Every structure is written in C-alpha cells, then in structure tokens.
C-alpha cells in the first residue's frame, strides 16, 4: 500500500516538475530565411534548396539532402546578403541510391 502511494507521489511530482519547465520560444523553431526545397523534376537524385534573405544581415545556408539507402549529402554553402537569394543543391549518387527522400536547409549567420 505504501509503495503504491510513493510511486504515485513520485509520478505526480515528476509531472509537476515537467509541466513547470518553460516551453521553447516559437522563434527558436522558426527559420530565418525564406526557403523552398524540392527534388528536380527530371532528376530524382538531385535535391535543391532555394532561399531568400528577408533580414538586414548576411546569412549562409546549404541544402541537406536525405538519400534513402545511399549516404546523405550536403550542398555548397551559399552566402546571402540582405535581400539576396540563391540556391544550394546536393546529388544522391552511387549504385545504392533510391533517390532524394527529403531536402532540408542548414542556415547560419555569416
């Protein structure tokens, strides 16, 4: 009986502690650059990230391409001045590739 009460108290205490933990800010989850990611229409092994910089500072970015059964790849870093735009791409190669599975963006302040 006492063991069950101690477990219930520990669970309730843990829940109270976790619910009091501050939630991450919404801006932490958002990206800074305005980007579109896609797979090339004629080459399913080519992933592309096209980004625009809406800020007043310079940013760099690169495409991060998931290649299925082949190793994932990243594109070249592209520097975007304020208001600038550009593309980065990665190619899934090798005999084991199953094509692009997803394309993401790695962005950082310059």
Q: Give the overall silhouette.
A: elongated
Q: State Rg.
A: 22 Å
What sequence of helices (H) and strands (E) makes up the elements? HHEEEEEEE
Tally of extended strands?
Answer: 7
Helix content: 10-25%
Sheet bearing the most strands, described?
A: 4 strands, antiparallel
User: What count of helical segments does DSSP give?
Assistant: 2
Identify low-pLDDT runs.
1-30
Instruction: Determine the mean pLDDT.
Output: 80
User: What structural class is derived from the secondary structure elements?
Assistant: alpha+beta
- Termini Cα gap: 61 Å
Strand content: 35-45%
Describe it.
It is a single chain. With 110 residues, the chain is an alpha+beta fold. It contains 2 helices and 7 strands, in the order ααβββββββ. The strands form 2 sheets. Strands 3, 4, 5 and 7 form a 4-stranded antiparallel sheet that branches. It starts with a helix and ends with a strand.
Task: Give the helix/strand layout.
Layout (H helix, E strand, L loop, with lengths): L1 H19 L5 H4 L4 E6 L6 E7 L6 E8 L6 E2 L3 E3 L4 E7 L10 E8 L1
Antiparallel strand pairs: 1-2, 2-6, 3-4, 3-5, 3-7
């Amino acid at each position: 009986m006492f063991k069950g009460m101690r477990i219930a108290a520990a669970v309730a205490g843990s829940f109270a502690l976790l619910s009091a933990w501050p939630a991450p800010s919404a801006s932490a989850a958002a990206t800074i650059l305005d980007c579109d990611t896609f797979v090339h229409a004629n080459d399913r092994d080519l992933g592309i990230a096209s980004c625009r910089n809406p800020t007043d500072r310079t940013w760099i970015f690169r495409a991060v391409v998931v290649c299925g059964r082949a190793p994932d790849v990243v594109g070249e870093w592209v520097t975007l001045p304020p208001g600038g735009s550009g593309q980065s791409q990665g190619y899934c190669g090798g005999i084991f590739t199953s094509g692009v599975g997803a394309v993401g963006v790695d962005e950082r302040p310059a």
